[in-house]
Design a protein that fits this description.
heterotrimer; A alpha/beta; B mainly alpha; C mainly alpha; B: mainly alpha; ABC transporter involved in vitamin B12 uptake, BtuC; 2 domains; two-stranded antiparallel sheet; C: mainly alpha; 12 helices; 3% strand; globular
Chain lengths: 264, 356, 293
Amino acid sequence: MTTPSAPALEVKNISLAFKGVKAISDLSFEVAPQEICALIGPNGAGKSSLLNILNGVYVPDSGEIIFEGEHFHRMQPLEAARRGIGRGFQNNALFSGMSVADNVIAGLSRHARATLLEEALLLPRARAEARRFRERAHEVLRLFDLERHAETTVALLPYGVQKKVELARAIVAAPRLLLLDEPLAGMNSAEKQEIAQIIARLNRDLKLTIVLIEHDIGIVLKLAHHVVVLDYGRKLADGAPDTIRDNPEVIAAYLGHDKVEIAA
Amino acid sequence: MSDIELRLTGGIGEGASTRTLVGIAAAALIVALPFLATEYWINAIAVPFLILSLAGLGLNLLTGYAGQISLGAGAFMMVGAYAAFAFQLRLPELPLPLALIAAGIVAGAVGFAFGFPSTRIKGFYLIVSTLAAQFFFEWLFLKFPWFYNGDPSATISLPAGLSVFGIDLNSPHGRYYLTLASVAVLTWLSYNLVRSQPGRNWMALRDMDTAAAVIGVPILRAKLQAFAVSSFILGIAGALWAFAYLGSASVQSFGLTRSYQILFIIIIGGMGTIRGAYFGAAFVSLLPLALDWLFQRLLGGHVDAGLLQNIQKVIFGVLILWFLIKEPEGLARLLQRQRGDLGNRRLARLKIRRQT
Amino acid sequence: MNMFLETLIGGLLAGTMYSLVAIGFVLIYKASGVFNYAQGSILLFAALTFVSLTDQGVPVLVALAITVVVLALMAVGIERLILRPLVNRSPMTLFMATLGLAYIVEGTAQGLMGSQVRALDLGIEDLPIFLGDIMISQFDLTAAAVALVLVVALSLLFNKTRLGVELRGVADDTRAALSIGIDVNRIWQIVWTIAGLVGLVAGLLWGARQGVQFSLSLVVLKALPVLIIGGFTSIAGAIVGGLVVGATESLAETYIGPFLGGGITPWFAYALALAFLFIRPAGLFGEQKIERV
């Protein structure tokens, strides 16, 4: 990676507490453009909460987020989407009663311009927009080899396929920053490899900046350019995968029991 | 697998040609009905059934598609009825179809306003807002004589009866066709909506609202749209209920019991499907008749009306529970399953539920 | 000033009745996460059962005992047939289920015991008493005292007994409660029984005033704004909410009503609750929910 002039995302002194219990304390780190940044740490380290802050689902008690040079104390979910922050969720948060294609098209919502009346009366603009959305959705589905499932209700699909649908939905609106919460969770190793490759490809081909949370350290160390280690809401380490692997504090606190996996 | 999927979306499948034929036959039957049925059947069953279907459709957009529960269906019907009355009385030059649309728009605006709390609150909390509408309008339309034009019994009925561009529609046939036309047009519009972006936004909101916001679905706008469109349809249904079915109406015609009834229609018929409203309305209209018939047969004509009403209540209660527990997608799904497809869909859904 | 005080006190006393009804909701909501729309029907059912028994000449205490047994049986039935099959379903589904339950209970109550108005005499004098020159209804005062006793008894039950500890465990985290061996189904049965008893007390007091009749079941509609204002999870909230609704309702009817043509009580509490929702969505004593995604 070349050293870029400004970070794509900067988390600055963010703190968050739930009912008085600290979830994140004074956390700061930077994400360079077009890098894959992995957040690791035990459950309850505040990783998901941080993604939720970046998306505007939670409001931090203090601190700020700097995304592409703009400062935010709090993000609004819609604002985040509008500024090009995509998101995949930890437990599938797909719209279970809708088809795969409709789930993905829902990700294009903020680009919809046709009015309610135009949609109800099937006027030309609504129809053109619908066609455009469908084409775009199929383009993305092709990327994930999901086209044959396009009209299936997502609730019918196996978990692994659903995870791919979620990725497709997250990138359909061409975000510039993609936040992924445990995209590999609950998968077998073949599926993990496949998703990891897709993530690497999205990063390389679409020049996407990616922040992801993952527990499989073996894959993280291969996939990420940059790793931030969290523990009880504080930053334990921050650096390239190699330095993280050798950081004694990290090994003591977190990597210890995963050594076998790294070796493998 | 693939042909099941095709049928799932109701699109073009292998059985398409037979389905088209069945569709045409059904349409012909519906249009010709007044010439096949007695006046009693048209007045007392077909017309109210169609209007209840329409009301169910309206509520289904809000509750079944957008996931916003409402106990105020009666209130929005009431607003539509009183608005239609006001337009016909005070703007007689406005033709009936336009008066109906205008009444729908008034009801839609009211729905929009009472939908506002939904931007702050969720789930069953929302019944507060819709119940507020229910009680407020019952009070409003009874308190101020302007709304019922000072009628001594505080009821409303159209000064010139029903007529469209000089055609008199006061006969049973006229009422039937007016209702049928309204229902057909609004069903078509609703069908278009639920299959396009607004419908997708509503379902996204229903299935997982936080995720919807994060991926860019404008959930506040979607909610308010759902309230407005739903109330628009309910408003027209209310106007039809007052003038095409009852002839003259009062606030009691649209009380809380009506709101429950419309909600029951969609629970029984199937939430989140267009045809569910029709199934539910058919059920709700026919059950009392069936019970009445049954009790006449069993007890030889000496049934206390009050008792019959209570038995009906218990049966409805049991059915609601049965459907919620055994078949949350209502008659629409039950009938579909009878036709033999998609047994495993629910299984998949159950699996999902366990995972999350 | 006297008129103001009289209106206020009358409203507060009426409010204790709302509180009483609302407590039944809070108990069930805390234990099983259900907004029990059928609470009003259960209240009607309980009062009607009692009155039907005493009308048949059954001694009061025996009638009371039978009613309690009937309510307990009903609670067990509800838990078995409705709550258990619907476990893990959305709050909205549960709410609609209680709407169905309300129809069953109402239909059964009126089908079996008739729908005419029944007089109920609890032997409470309803002569007004005077505090200085402020008039207070003795009946309201008695009702308020009963409500107070009930609240104290419930707080003792929940704070001092093993059952209370278990119940709070279930309310805080059903899964955790299960894992440490608390029989959640039994807790539900007990809580629904207690809520039924609270309903019985409320039903008897309301019934003594306006006769035992169908309209008793409509108190559910009064309790909803009370809960919104007080919060769904707090007994203290139900009490304060009831008092707030009772007082503001009667003040509004007296001072604002005349400008609007009167009769604003049916919707005033709702308008107040909506205003509250905008200011404090969780209610005065409720807990803010954290969303997990």
